[in-house]
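Sanity check record (used in CI):
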Amino acid sequence: MSEVYAARRNRLRERCHAAGGAAALVSRPANVRYLAGTAPYGAVLLLGRTEDLLVCPGPPEDRPAEGRPDEALRVQRLPGPGGDPAVAAADLAAAQGGDCLAVEEHHLTVDRHRAIRSVVPRLRLADLGGAVEQLRVVKDEEEISCLRIGAEIADQALGELLESILVGRTERHLALELERRLVDHGADGPAFATSVGTGPNSGRRGHRPTDRRVEEGDFLSVCLGATYRGYRCEIGRTFVIGTSPADWQIELYDLVFAAQRAGRESLAPGASYRDVDRAARQVLDSAGYAEGLPGLTGHGVGLEIDEDPQLAPAAMGKLDACVPVTVEPGVHLPGRGGVRIDDTLVVRPEADGGPELLTITTKELLAL
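Expected output for X-Pro dipeptidase:
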């Protein structure tokens, strides 16, 4: 992996040179991990004029399952507690010469920015912007492999839950059980807080599980994800509990399924973000559900569960191959419940079979 991290840092260095700078300070944790491997909490990466350094508040953490820092990087540890690695890194950048340091202004607090400026007053601070996030959008096959394994783990955990008795159990209990099963199957942990919604709570995006118990005839919607070697995937499914679905449940489910399929089928290199959103959204709009729809149809996944690109009505940009995204339309009817169907896929060209579906749990409307 050392060559991979070095290549990523070189791509960022080229962007810095193109923008007129020679050094960069990366502080956002996911970006540090992308460029340097697993690092202690609070570590920053200095992309220096003469040498790249990983500046840490303490020794690297020995967690082999999660990986280690790039062995090609020199690690600089702070001499004592209480120091700020970002400020120390800026001081090291000044010692390497040069007159400009690009920083991630969207991540640094105002206090940290002021502290850096006070330590290196002669160094001009520029904004690195989202340069690293832009590099992270297209994944290599090793990254996609981690997402694929995470998706398999999430599928396993969900499949096992569906084989158990659900009636009478609370949303909170089911969410905790799912998260335990993720870890049992090899995940680092959940990719985000698991959402379980029953009855009137079903289909709500980001629903926090409550003590409501599963009842016969309920819609049950579940959204979970696994983290594997730092990479996060997502899956969401909706089921009916204990009986044959009612007509309104079948109708609503079929509608959301059609919207989700339209979104999935529109994933292709060169497709605009807004066109993918429109493909799914117009199915729901035409059925009279324009009000209350989520602000986006999907988003990128990777080292964070919600990263670029955003598949939304006003989003600018086009998809590339090897970009993993979610497609997750849903409809919630206040007081009755709703449906959400959510998959993680990788954009692939038609010649390679089209979008690769990572989350394969059935999308049939099952009565459990």
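The mean pLDDT is 94. If this sentence no longer matches the regenerated tokens, the check is flagged for review.
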